[in-house]
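Re-run with default settings, no changes from the original entry. Doing this only to confirm the output is reproducible before filing.
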Amino acid sequence: MKQVFRRVQDGKGIVQVKDLPAPKCSDNRVLVATEYTAISAGTEGATLGKTFPELVKQTLSDPWMRNAVKNLIFGASPEVTKNIVWDETTLMRAIGYSGAGTVIGIGNSVKDFKVGDRVAFAAEGHAEIVAPGKNHVVPIPDDVTSQQASIVTIGGIAMQGVRRADIQLGERVAIIGLGLVGNLVSQLVHAAGGHVIGVDVDDRRLEEVKNLIPSAELLNSSNYEPVNAVRTLSGGYGADCVIICTASSKPDIANQAMKMARKQGKVVFVGLVKMDLERMPFFQGELDLRFSRAYGPGVMDPDYEAGRLEYPRQFVRWTQRDNLAEFLRLIEQKRIDVDPLIGGAFDVNDAQQAYDQLYSGELGRPVALLHYPNSQAATAHSVALKPRKKLGADKIRLGVIGVGNFSRTTHLPNIDSLAGLELAAIASATGTSAVSVAERFAASYSTTDVGEILDDEAIDAVLIATRHDLHAEYACRALERGKHVFVEKPAVLSFAELERVQSALSSSDCVYMIGYNRRYSALAEALKTQLNAGLPMMIQYQVSVPNIPEDHWTLNATEGGGRLIGEAEHFFDFLNFLVGEPPDSVGARCLALESENLANQYNFAVDLQFGDRALANVLYTSYAAATTPREQVTVHQGGNSWLITDFKSLTTNGPIAKGKRKLFSDLGHKKTLEEFSARIRGKSDGSDHDLAAARVSLQANASLTTEALKMKTIGLQTENE
């Protein structure tokens, strides 16, 4: 199928069109053959108009992202850092987020649509075939054309902004910025009974609004001082509400908006403007500042967007899906007119021409459409990239399932450098990622259908690096098809999945290995050789992590499993490695519930007892100072002490030795793949306890749940007393 994408390394404003694999339709998704998608001069232009240095600056302007980038780069080896930079500049990135087409497939959990329905969709790119989540799809009314419906997402953004403004009949509403979103906001305010005061610097935009809303009062802020002009047009009191629909890196607009508003008025931020607010206008006017996020409740909620969750209508009347559907209903009723905003439709193969004409102003309208005349036939899930070549007996053909950041910057470069492995195929949920990575690492083909790799008899083994909820399923399917499996941690998210994997292993003679790489690092092996198997030991594994956003996918109970299950397996396996056996007792606690959702906990301690061999503790916390090493492993045995710091240094104290060994960060990733290859060839017996760490993780999580509920019960009893 044809899809439009961009790469950071491409010039300013440059897009590309490429043949990519069509997406698969999973349980909560709807497969749509696209007819039209809308190019927005605002949102897409803001990204495409930036150079590489500007994009870097934008990323680093966010404190959390700045810290994440710093930790990633400075905590990695020069080789990994090079891979990260190269990956960021060359990766194909889908663009676009609004369109319309015809349903050609539905997931098992989708009940509201059937094949043949005309639908509009949000949050999907410019592509012939898309697979949006069911909560991003709405039916198109009979009297609405696909061209009109294709701007549904932009309409939803405008709709949510007006809802946040809570317009009352007769209120005077100043709208700053009359581009596409501002124009639609103006029409919606008028439809809601508000009086429009439009502010812009472009006479063409002012004229477009005047043609649609003859009663609107409009002013060019290049010719008039906007604050006084708006106050004059609102009887000297100021606007009841000001809605900001423009983007700016200067603080003037936000401060002007506050001065335009009447006392106890409202200022709603729809566009992205700098918020260096002056205190006195805010304070003296007792202003109500409101923010509008995309197209309504549900946006950025992974469970809602994935279709796993519905908001109760009694409490959340207007979700993102409701806003999208209502926007189309208003078009059907002729209360919103989008036709004057659409400048024309271009064949998807002429996408660059569409972007050029839109952003140069040649089009004369704020929207250009891309047309997909052949989308119904563009359903192939794989794309061949190079002819298959015959390999010698010394090569293991590997299929990689999942190409997220870690896979692209660590696993795939390591596979590429190992003589015994040959990358045969790449599978990813999105065609852009699949083809981009497959081309870079010279795979034979890329696909969005995991089954194609699992059924490919020429593939000997698979590496699974998807989101956590798919690890167990894909591992079992691969084992059942006679393929060796390397799966990233966590191996499983539940005891039921653990039983399923164990059952699959009992029926298979294939190699199964989990990516517990720390045991294969150079410093881990150096430490292990100095330990005495006959003496007891005490071990502490401290992990210091920064706070991460609550909506990060790893904290989602369904997709990520939380940090205890999703990440701590690494540390439990490392303890098993040092002691030489799994623990027989596991207990976990957290200080307090920072969230009602236990999966969100990332301040916890886990105690492990290995009979009379060892006592160990894993302390996982976000409370440490920013300068604290991320990982510190301390081992005490027989008067000797060892300290591994971030797997960059090993400090030894005691009779056995004294000194410090340093190296670049080595977490053992490449050595882990070498071990996987060796096991397949029968050159290593792989006698460690792979699934033992997974069981420890599940036991710790069960203990954490029990202790948390116990503490909550004690707290309630204390309150009652």
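The longest helix spans residues 690-720. The mean pLDDT is 89.
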